[in-house]
Structures are given as structure tokens and as C-alpha cells.
TrEMBL record:
It comes from Salibacter halophilus. Belongs to the nitroreductase family. This is Nitroreductase. Pfam families: Nitroreductase. Gene3D superfamilies: NADH Oxidase. One of its GO terms (molecular function) is oxidoreductase activity. The keyword Oxidoreductase applies. The keyword Oxidoreductase applies. InterPro entries: Nitroreductase, Nitroreductase-like. Residues 5-148 form the Nitroreductase domain. Keywords: Oxidoreductase. PANTHER family: NAD(P)H NITROREDUCTASE YDGI-RELATED (PTHR43673), NADH DEHYDROGENASE_NAD(P)H NITROREDUCTASE XCC3605-RELATED (PTHR43673:SF10).
Length: 178
């Protein structure tokens, strides 16, 4: 598993190869097995394939900088967090963390399938909430793309440079407390 974790990347250059429903279901299956507080599983995902009205509706919520490259992705989605617990209707302060766990499972599963997921904070949660007609008990957490790796030369120069740059990670000593 460490191989998939280390090989996971957030690419911006996607091929136009379609993702099948079976592949999407396999990714969602990985997400649904994530750990969560009280086994609440406070996540939902709105996922659309390129060429559909829903893809276009989600796309409109993206920040302009993301629109430049997301258009190459065959799948666009958004993760959502339910803000209250089902068992007592109290605020779930761990919901976003739990959604992150589900997305991490999905990203690692994608890597094992030679797929890539790129999560984005550059979007309008208000536009997503309006488009999906969300009640106030759900927060849009992050938007994401899914696809196969494409050619870097399809990206603007500044993004192509980022795409080929070495990945940097803090050392273990930098992230541990003692």
C-alpha cells in the first residue's frame, strides 16, 4: 500500500479516455470503507462525466484558475459533509475529517487503478449548494477530478511546469511532535 500512497499525485493533464461506471463504483466502494466518527459515514459525492449537464453545472462553480485545466478531465465531482450526527442530531465536528478519510481511500484506490484524482479548494461552495439544492445540513468540502494521465503539453506553460516539478514532502522529524 505504501507504493500507492507514494505514487499518488494530483495531476492537471488528463487524457480524454472515459472512466467507466464500474471504475467509479470501485472508487466509491473504497471511499465508503473509510473510518469515521461513530461510523457515521457523513459523506456524499456528486460525480458527473464530461459531456453531461451535471458536469457543466459543477464546472461553473470552479474558480477561473481551475477551469483552465479541469476541462481536460473526463470526470468532475464534489465531496459533501453532513454536519450533524444521525444518532443524536448534534454537530459532527469531525465530518470534514471523515470526508477527507474517504477521499484519501478513493485517491489511493485510484492510484492502484492507474487513475488520478486531483482535489480542489478553488470553487464556490455557494454555487455548489445552489446547483445541488443542498439543505443547510451539508457542506461542500472539495471538488475533484478523476481521470487517466494525459500529455503535459495540453496545459498552459505555468501549469505544465508545476506538473513536471518534483514533489516535496516534509521530513518525519518536521511532522512529529516529540
Amino acid at each position: 500500500m505504501i507504493k500507492e500512497i507514494k505514487n499518488r499525485r494530483s495531476i492537471r493533464a488528463f487524457s480524454d479516455k472515459n472512466i467507466t461506471d464500474d471504475q467509479l463504483n470501485e472508487l466509491l466502494d473504497a471511499a465508503r470503507w473509510a473510518a469515521s466518527c461513530f461510523n457515521e459515514q457523513p459523506w456524499k459525492f456528486a460525480i458527473a462525466s464530461k459531456g453531461s449537464d451535471h458536469y457543466d453545472g459543477l464546472f461553473e462553480a470552479l474558480a477561473e484558475g481551475n477551469k483552465k485545466w479541469v476541462k481536460t478531465s473526463p470526470v468532475l465531482g464534489v465531496s459533501l459533509a453532513k454536519k450533524t450526527f444521525d444518532h443524536n442530531d448534534k454537530p459532527n465536528k469531525h465530518a470534514w475529517h471523515d470526508v477527507g478519510m474517504a477521499m484519501a481511500n478513493m485517491a489511493i484506490q485510484a492510484t492502484s487503478m492507474d487513475l488520478y484524482i486531483h482535489q480542489m479548494a478553488g470553487f464556490s461552495p455557494e454555487k455548489i449548494a445552489a446547483y445541488l439544492n443542498l439543505d443547510e445540513n451539508y457542506d461542500p468540502v472539495a471538488m475533484f477530478t478523476i481521470g487517466y494521465k494525459g500529455e503535459v503539453d495540453q496545459l498552459p506553460d505555468d501549469l505544465a511546469k508545476q506538473e513536471t516539478a518534483d514533489r516535496k514532502r516534509k521530513t518525519i522529524d518536521e511532522i512529529k511532535f516529540w
